[in-house]
Structure of glucarate dehydratase:
Amino acid sequence: MSAIKIKDIIARSIAIPIRGKLLRVAGEHPGRNVFTLVEIITDEGIVGYGETGGGGFSLAPFIEKLKRQLIGEDPFNIRRLKWKIASPITATYYNQLLPQIWFPIESALLDIKGKALGISVSNLIGGQIRDSIEVSAYIFPTEDTETVDDLVKSAEAIVRKYGFKSIKLKAGVFNPEHEVDVIKALADKFPHARFRIDPNGGWNLSQAVNVAKSLKGIKIEYFEDPVWTMEGLRAFKQATGYTVATNTVATRFEDIPNVFLRNAVDVILGDPHWWYGIYGYLELSATLWSLGLELGMHSPSETGIALSAMIHAASTSQNLGYAIDTHYIYLEDDIIKRQFYIENGKIQVPKEAGLGIEIDESKVQKYEEMYNDTGDYIYHGDKDITTIPKLKFRSCKCHID
């Protein structure tokens, strides 16, 4: 055991503006994302950072109540601390909330350990397989990009600026025929690009199959949750032959055998937020490899802190088969001093000790004030765009990404 002890834990809530109101089947992000920052301070003055969130509410009240279980503990003993906070019985009660609480805590612990030892997180957990991580273009319709031409122009600016080779379209917002037109127009504009389509389970099986058949000849990497339920995904896969990915029907290790035995999906879109941190993501990687399933990486939205953790996890995952998702391009600002840069569709893996990021305290305080002024929000589907020709807004509230 190390001689270092955890002295204090601080959870802070921030809200960062995003570029436009990003539309999805469940509603929209209303111009900002809420994040929860975690600082773990040791008795030797080493500070580790973690972050979770990207949705509309802070997890700080939950994390504050866990302090008594962590203070005085050895920050190097990450397995012991995970068992104290995220044991299987606890996970049963908290379901998907608990992994998102554990993720920033684990990130901060790994940040401390890496700083104490003078090595990066990726080398701490086994060593980099990749020096850079490919990222997909995450294209959302917004209030200003509701027509085919508008959305294609917006996507073109994003793809050319960052050099993306893989393009992900957030679908399920308008009627399927409109979204087929968008994908075809994007494919004409970027004939060498690979496409992934994610309606967040907003289509019924008939609609999903018709969309798939309408896109014959386009380079589709996968359909992500084209319909709802595991059996629905199996039926879509059987009917179309397309690769199917999910971040909804397989969110726990207990789900993996069922997915495998039913042959329901091909790609599990894990991420450290939902799969118990970086170590959990690596365990998922090994599990899928043993079954012949493929691994991707989902994004719930992140600042540079969580993005660093995601990149370190991706850099050490031997069977990561696809460009990772990130909402990072939509943040108006970040709270780290040296922000991440996407070039030729890739992000370089940090080599500095720990997570390899440095916090800008003035930015944290600025966006704490914004959170205090604006508070939490829920996804909502109250935007009325039914008057736009050809388009029909889906106001389904059955699922939130």
